[in-house]
Amino acid sequence: MTGLRTRLNAWLERFATRPYATGLLFTVALIEGSIAPLPPDIPFIALSVARPKRSFFYGSICIAGSTAGAVVGYFIGYFLYDGIGHSLVSFYHLEGGMESLLAQYRDHAWLTLILAGFTSIPFCVFTIAAGFHQTVGLGTLFLAALAGRAIRFYLLSTVLYVFGSSARRSLERALIIVPVLVVILLSLGFLLGRRFF
Question: Of 43, 53, 97, 129, which is the most buried if we count CB atoms within 10 A?
């Protein structure tokens, strides 16, 4: 177990000091907001555990990348829905929920977008749907995505800032616990998504 901890700590240190690490974090967040469910949480947590005092900096990068990705997704929905947007929605098997999502936007655009970051439904589907026939104004999408992502990533930043050092020491246990928690959270998110969308 000591060997695992040593190797894990060494890998985290190497990753955190790589010149491309923050660029990778921004890129992953951008992709998640626009075209694919590629969560930035993994590189974000790895960087923050290695350097807890910089967790808010890394959280800010995630927020910036994801919000920029939301704008890209919006324009995909607005200009390219018939080509790219529809293909992405079909790929995630969410065609049936599209009408329900559009109705949610008409009634509760702000709340829907803020909550979007906490479901298992890919965030890019929300951003593409927002741009579809300008269902949501670009300004509303930008501010709501910014608010939702700020809540999510600054909450995580706070936890990692406070507990980052102890998280590093107990990360080998987390490698067992976290996948179980992720499955539970994804299942809950899927059930909520099915219920409301």
Answer: 129
